[in-house]
């Protein structure tokens, strides 16, 4: 369960993310095999540290607090997915081989990115190491492969907004389910639920307004 959930969550989180856009940029300059190997190893190293941090958090904070934090983070990831990222493909000169150029760029781009934060949250939530690490790493490879081989060819035919909404709704569902299972019953009363829905609704409205302005 931890492996499958980690894989699916990272694939969803990577939709329209800056690292996926970065993969498409690199694939236009380097062989796709080199790009995918760079993505694989950069993600494996980065998420290894993220999973270790997530597991460490379970030894510091009560597990119920961890689950609440993970659920809230999933809702934040949903809003982040709707917002999306932009990346301008620029070439400032190649200082390293293609593999190391991709590796370094992806490792840096993944620092503080929502897929890395999702990995920390998943590791803390499930409190397991290997399934989350392998699942999130494989999820990144799959998402970027789709970005290179499918998104570059069909991206103009598939509405980006529709894809982002589907991913965001899945994140929202898991977030609300996590809160329902982890929050004390006194916080599951109608006033708190309405206040939460209003805050999330306003956030979605502000994000979608930016789409309209563009």
Strand content: under 5%
Low-confidence stretches: none
Q: What can be said about the biggest beta sheet?
A: none
Count of discrete alpha- or pi-helical segments spanning 4 or more residues: 9
User: How helix-rich are the residues, as a percent range?
Assistant: over 70%
Query: Number of folding domains?
Result: 2
Q: Assign the structural class, choosing from mainly alpha, mainly beta, alpha/beta, alpha+beta, or little secondary structure.
A: mainly alpha
Distance between the termini: 40 Å
By DSSP, the count of extended strands is: 0
Oligomeric state: single chain
Average pLDDT figure: 80
Shape: globular
Radius of gyration: 18 Å
How are helices and strands ordered from N to C?
A: HHHHHHHHH
What distinguishing features does this structure have?
single chain, 214 residues, mainly alpha
Overall description:
By secondary structure, the chain is mostly helical. The chain folds into 2 domains: 2-181, no CATH class; 184-214. 79% of the residues lie in helices and 0% in strands. The protein has 9 helices and no strands. The chain has helices at residues 2-13, 18-27, 32-60, 63-83, 98-110, 114-126, 130-154, 160-182, 190-213. Helix 4 runs antiparallel to helix 8. The protein is globular and about 55 Å long. The chain starts with a helix and ends with a helix. The model has no long low-confidence stretch (mean pLDDT 80).
Question: Would you summarize the structure shown here?
Answer:
Helix content is 79%, strand content 0%.
Topology overview:
Elements: H1 2-13, H2 18-27, H3 32-60, H4 63-83, H5 98-110, H6 114-126, H7 130-154, H8 160-182, H9 190-213
Helix pairs in contact: 1-6, 1-7, 2-5, 2-7, 3-5, 3-6, 3-7, 4-6, 4-8, 6-7
